[in-house]
Amino acid sequence: MTDLPAAAEPVSLTREQVAQYLRDNPEFFLDQDELLRTLKLPHDSGRAISLVERQVHLFREQRDALHHELRELVAVARQNDQLFDKSKRLLMQLIEARTLTDMAAAVDDSIRGDFGLDAVSLLLFAEPAQASDAQGVLHFVSLAEAEAELGALVESPKAVCGPIREHQRAFLFAEAATAAASVALIPLRHGELLGLFAVASRTPGYFDESMGSLFLSYLSDSLSRLLPPLMQRHVRRLPKAGSMVVESR
User: Fold this and answer.
1) Which residue has the higher pLDDT, 241 or 229?
2) pLDDT value for 235
3) How many Å apart are CA 91 and CA 218, to the nearest integer?
4) Mind listing the pLDDT tens digit for each residue in 15-34?
5) Fewest CB atoms within 10 Å of the CB: 5, 20, 37, 136?
6) 41, β-bridge pairs
7) What is the tens place of the pLDDT at every residue in 168-204?
8) How do 138-141 and 119-125 pair as beta strands?
9) Minimal CA–CA distance to 113: which of 84, 86, 80?
């Protein structure tokens, strides 16, 4: 009597294998209308829906997500346009400045007016014999004095953003230090370190280490190139007679 062949054991497919097969054969359901109608998937509403309904639901979710991303991109583009206009206006004022006092006034008006920040300081390094009293947001200090008060912040190669110590806020912003909960400190370099430019907001966390620094770098580069001739004109000379040459317009 001939032995019958043993029945083949059923092949067990994993979920991953089934999913991979469907990914490799996206046309599988084209001639499976009856199967599509019988397939049911759970839904957030509690009722079962067909695979086609599920696909429609997913497409709607993707559409809504894309619309949200598009709205965000449009909002960012508008903000960038506004930032560009404000930056351009400030740069024109800086170029037209004939004295350091004019430059400091333009910076103060723009930062607190156009940009809506709460404190600003333009700290320029000068030898003790050349330093003069503060004029608004314009301050003259020696490099040694700045290093003693600000430490490593002075030598940072890029903008430093975030909270700083109370005595450092007082050194940078004087009476406006109480409005400096969050600070961006930008070095001014053109060959050598000319000074520091600081802006602040009374809102904690307004500036942080992860924020984009494109605008801050742009402003730093502009100031660093415009400052040297104005600083040379502004330097107080001490003639032998003891009289001083004051800044001329």
Assistant:
1) 229
2) 67
3) 10
4) 888 888 888 887 877 777 67
5) 5
6) 49
7) 989 998 878 888 889 998 889 888 889 999 999 988 8
8) parallel
9) 86
State percent of the chain over pLDDT 70: 77
Asked if residues 165 and 108 have their Cβ atoms less than 8 Å apart, the reply is: no
* Residue burial 46-69, b: 16+ Cβ < 10 Å; e: rest: eeebebeebeeeeeeeeeeeeeee
Rounded Cα–Cα distance for residues 164 and 183 (Å): 7
pLDDT tens-digit map of 78-94: 887 888 888 889 899 99
Q: Which amino acid is at 133?
A: D
Residues present in the chain in total: 249
Given this structure, which CATH class describes domain 98-234? alpha beta
Q: Locate the domains of the chain by residue range.
A: 28-96, 98-234
CA–CA distance, 60 with 72 (Å, rounded to integer): 18
Question: What is the rounded distance in angstroms from the CA atom of residue 168 to the CA atom of residue 74?
Answer: 39
User: What type of residue is 138?
Assistant: L
Q: Give long-range contacts, CB 8 A cutoff, 24+ apart: 173-180.
A: 173/119, 173/121, 173/198, 173/200, 174/121, 174/134, 174/139, 176/118, 176/119, 176/121, 176/200, 177/119, 178/202, 179/118, 179/119, 180/118, 180/119
